[in-house]
Amino acid sequence: MHVVYCGMPKKDLNQIAANIVALTTGTKVKEEVAKNPAAVALGRLGGLKGGKARADSLSATKRKEIARKAAASRWKTKK
User: What whole-number distance in Å separates Cα of residue 45 and Cα of residue 39?
Assistant: First the structure.
């Protein structure tokens, strides 16, 4: 649940409660650091093409080997 106060950024109830406590006790609340938009765009770009590019670069036998290993680790019993 997000709340908007007069054009201020959205905050969830925990953030609002932390701000109330900080105001009443006189302490400071750590504010979120703004992300670098260029870094965000670059990371998103890599994330969008990553899986498909990796699948295109692998041979069919290598993909099968990776899939078998993943399935084996998913289904192995925990000791």
Answer: 10
Task: Please measure the distance between the N-terminal and C-terminal CA atoms of the chain and give it in whole angstroms.
Answer: 40
Any idea what the Cα angle at residue 35 is, between residues 20 and 8, rounded to 5°? 35
Quick one: CA dihedral 41, 45, 48, 50, positive or negative?
A: negative
pLDDT in tens, the chain (79 residues): 455 455 566 778 888 888 889 889 988 877 777 888 888 888 888 888 888 888 889 999 999 999 999 999 999 877 6
Q: What are the tokens at 78?
A: 């925990």
Contact 13, 1 (CB under 8 A): yes
Select from 49, 63, 9 the least CA-distant residue to 31.
Answer: 9
Q: What is the pTM of this model?
A: 0.40
